[in-house]
Amino acid sequence: MAQTGHTENSTTHHTKHSTTMRRTLRREAPSTIGLLADAQDFAAMRRYRTFAFDDHTVYLQQVESLLKALAAQGVHTTVALFDPEDYAEFCAESGLDADTGASRSRFTAEIAAAGATVAYTGQRLSDLIPVLVSRAVRQATWEYATLLLADLGTCADCGQDIGRAAFDRASHLLMRLLEAAGPGTHHLVCSTPTDNDQLLAVLHTHRDTAGPARLDSAEGAEFATVLAVAIALESRGGVVLRTSAPDSPDRVHGWRLAHGALAPLTAGEVFNAYCTDADTGEPVSPESGVEYCAGFDIGADPAEPHH
């Protein structure tokens, strides 16, 4: 009897120890959730028999409950956008059955590795979704702009990579613009039309009285890439700078891209650009506490002759 009891106790102890170790490993294994943020995307997934949900609102509530439960267990969780069209293409290319949870899980792992994600830190799902969508749009814009630059090839006259030269030029213009902008919190927007879309990049920076501007390197690269597209294609690109500083109104400046340089807009042109609806062309009331100012000389080196 004593021997049997000892064996049972050892087995129980081993089982509990194994369970504890698995729980520890589970807490240290990151988790990713592929989110159907859009009702239309959700409806597209309902064609799969193994997709268990039939109400988008209930689905979002369940996702939020799962996020909270994982956080309570100490599991680091990120959220990625789940695109049904991309999922169908992924399964077709990989030879996977799209109507299985395993395939959805595998696709989620793929998009988490290469796509835009947001870490869950306890925020409401309604606050997380706009951030996630914004990051996904930014990444798609950057990828599209990068492909545009890569497809331009080399200059027939000098053999220079056109896309690389345009990116180097855009980086120079951006650095000169940030230097000339001076201290303050800066919000920059670059936009340029292409054959298929209107590319838009946003950059937030801050500069103290002493020292260089502080900016996110990924945002900086995205901004420079969109500006490079405008330079390489000689399209109607433009840049707007909004500067905020304590105890003073916000100042808005603007430039148009011309021959590889940023040509300052007049105060009137900046006002018209800011106070006109881009879709309808109708006037928009100016913001209170905002000064619409002419663009200024950023002191950039002259552009090399375009080939």
TrEMBL record:
Residues 1-25 are annotated as: Disordered. It comes from the Bacteria. Residues 1-12 have a biased composition (Low complexity). Residues 13-25 have a biased composition (Basic residues). This is MEDS domain-containing protein. It comes from Streptomyces anulatus. The lineage of its organism: Bacteria, Bacillati, Actinomycetota, Actinomycetes, Kitasatosporales.
